[in-house]
Write a structure and sequence with these properties.
mainly beta; OB fold (Dihydrolipoamide Acetyltransferase, E2P); five-stranded mixed barrel; 1 helix; 34% strand; CSP_DNA-bd; phosphoprotein; NA-bd_OB-fold; mRNA 3'-UTR binding
Length: 127
């Protein structure tokens, strides 16, 4: 997909917000919300696989190494569809979209762990 010609993922105003708040329970994450048209475009994209290269829990973001060998991809905690805290080396599947407003770099969205272990650390739930 040629992203220089297709800047439509975020061409309209979307309602996106995410907070990583510090409370007595530790950091908590809140999910982002998007407009329906952006969600529909993302749903049509294929999933890719990769590995968490690094993840900064206190900042709420990290990088994914795609299996097919392209450039590392930015991932924000709000795009991880699990309550598990990401760890370096976790295998994930994700969809790739351009980062607005210039759409020159990519970010991972709709990120899912391929293997989830019940014993691993989870983000606290927001009240």
């Amino acid at each position: 997909m040629d992203d220089s010609k297709n800047n439509s993922y975020f061409s309209e105003k979307s309602t996106e917000s995410c907070e990583l708040s510090n409370s007595s329970l530790g950091y908590q994450k809140d999910r982002r919300s998007r407009s329906n048209s952006i969600t529909e475009k993302i749903e049509k994209l294929p999933y890719e696989s990769g590995t968490i290269k690094s993840f900064c829990r206190s900042k709420g973001y990290g990088m994914i190494i795609p299996i097919e060998g392209s450039e590392d991809i930015f991932v924000h905690i709000s795009e991880i569809m699990s309550d598990y805290v990401p760890r370096d080396g976790d295998f994930v599947r994700f969809k790739r979209i351009p980062i607005p407003p210039k759409n020159l770099k990519k970010q991972a969205v709709d990120v899912h762990f391929i293997h989830e272990d019940e014993a691993r650390e989870r983000w606290p739930h927001t009240p």
